Amino acid sequence: MTQISFIAFDGTKFDVEAENGSTVMENAIRNDVPGIEAECGGACACATCHVYVDEAWMPAVGEPEAMEEDMLDFAYDVRPNSRLSCQIRVRDELNGLVVRVPERQG
């Protein structure tokens, strides 16, 4: 299991144990993390699972693919560390990952 810390917009921290192979979004939904809406269910067809990856984790998480970049155009307050959590696969290298949830989703 891989630990992920979600920081809600109000600063509340949600530490979850995530199964490798699942997505960061799936784990947010399973653990009732507020602010992750995931309207498309993880199909990269909306921008309602937008998160900010902690800067220290950016190299491990990697850059978004072209389709994700296109969907990020619809997200609210996009930053250089913005990602769609449905596109981040949980793996051992992400143990301890920290992501922040924006004020609102796009």
User: Distance between the terminal alpha carbons, to the nearest Å?
Assistant: 30 Å
Low-pLDDT runs: none
Structural class, from secondary structure content?
alpha+beta
What count of domains describes the coordinates?
A: 1
Which strand order does the major sheet show? 2-1-5-3-4
Average pLDDT over all residues: 97
**Helix/strand order:** EEHEHHEE
Query: Helix share of residues?
Result: 10-25%
Taking the sheet with the most strands, its summary is:
5 strands, mixed
- Give the CA-based shape: globular
Q: Please state roughly what percent of the residues sit in beta strands, choosing from under 5%, 5-15%, 15-25%, 25-35%, 35-45% or over 45%.
A: 15-25%
Given this structure, which CATH class is correct? Answer: Alpha Beta
Total number of helical segments?
Answer: 3
CATH topology: Ubiquitin-like (UB roll)
User: In total, how many beta strands?
Assistant: 5
CATH architecture group name? Roll
Structural features, described:
With 106 residues, this protein is an alpha+beta fold. It has one domain (2-100): Beta-grasp domain (Ubiquitin-like (UB roll), Roll), CATH 3.10.20.30. The protein has three helices and five strands; from the N terminus they run ββαβααββ. A five-stranded mixed sheet has the order 2-1-5-3-4. The termini are far apart. The model has no long low-confidence stretch (mean pLDDT 97).
